[in-house]
Amino acid sequence: MPPTKKKEAPVPRSGAESSRKVLGILLSFTPERPVASVETLAQEAGIPMSSAYRYVSLLREMGLLAERGNQFCLSARVANLARAARAAQMPIEEVARPILLRLRDETGETALLMARLGDNAVCLDRAESSDPIRLSFDVGSTFPLHRGAGPKALLAGLPPASRAAFLDRAAASDPVLRDGGRDTLLKDIEAVHQRGYATSIAEITPQIWAAAAPVISEDGKQVRAVLSIAGPSFRIDTEAQRRLTDATRAAAAELSIALGTSVNEAEGYPSQRVSLETR
Questions:
Q1: How much is the mean pLDDT over the chain?
Q2: C-beta of residue 63 within 8 angstroms of C-beta of residue 73
Q3: Which of 151, 251, 252, 261 could form a disulfide bond with 103, CB atoms 3.0-4.6 angstroms apart?
């Protein structure tokens, strides 16, 4: 007669269930709904309000959630998790790296790869200019979507309603967007979408001019990232601005095609309403 198998002790579920609920709150955030109230998070996760407040407090303490008025959004720290996920798959950075280097060498200025993370743009990679006077910031740096060529090129990739909703949220903490500034910027973003690229001067860093163009996803319907070029405005005159903008648009189209987008869909923004994907 075979020996009797010893029964394994049941695994306590309380800790696992709590972990599932905390993860459920994190997974409630999507590109279409980057900001949510505690009540909404409680409903999505199927938990009482008291538990939702406790879990939200824990996520804030861990630096994974940030408060925005009476609502919450994913913090910039989540970018580290996103980059880890990309590293385990086929990271866009790997495909973009030789194109970034070529764009840097062709223009002599710093080339950047940026993607959207909630209400921010995050720098995924950059190829720095060799000139002693140049734009320089770390990979992982984040910026609001309404400041700078790269962030604005990402904002222009959102559906019109999502662009307007973002600016409503941003206006709550940015006085520049109040008193008519919001409507002016909204028109500017619509113009970016129409012409297929964005430019800026001194919007993030003083005396820095930049241009950015969208990288279109393989289905031709979404903006996956943007390529940007940036440098000191004193050495970038009108002719140089045109040359750098053309080079940036060509590099973004090249990256789009390398990611599987058809040649006909690679340049500019998709004509239909699009959503932004950061994979």
A1: 85
A2: no
A3: 251
Q: Which of 218, 213, 211, 212 is nearest to 256 (CA)?
A: 218
* Closest C-alpha to 101, from 227, 7, 232, 219: 227
Per-residue pLDDT averaged across 103-126, rounded? 93
For the entire predicted model, the pTM comes to 0.66
Q: Is 89's pLDDT higher than 70?
A: no
Residue 127 to residue 117: CA distance in whole angstroms? 21
CA distances from 264 to 206, 225, 253, 270, 278 (A): 37, 18, 10, 10, 22
Token pair in block for residue 123: 């720098």
CA 14 to chain centroid, in Å, comes to 35
Tell me which residue of 235, 212, 243 sits closest to 134, measured CA to CA.
235
Domains in the chain, start-ordered, CATH in brackets?
Answer: 14-73 (1.10.10.10), 78-265 (3.30.450.40)
Three-class DSSP category at 270: coil
Q: What is the pLDDT of residue 10?
A: 44
Return d(Cα 35, Cα 252) in angstroms, integer.
Answer: 29
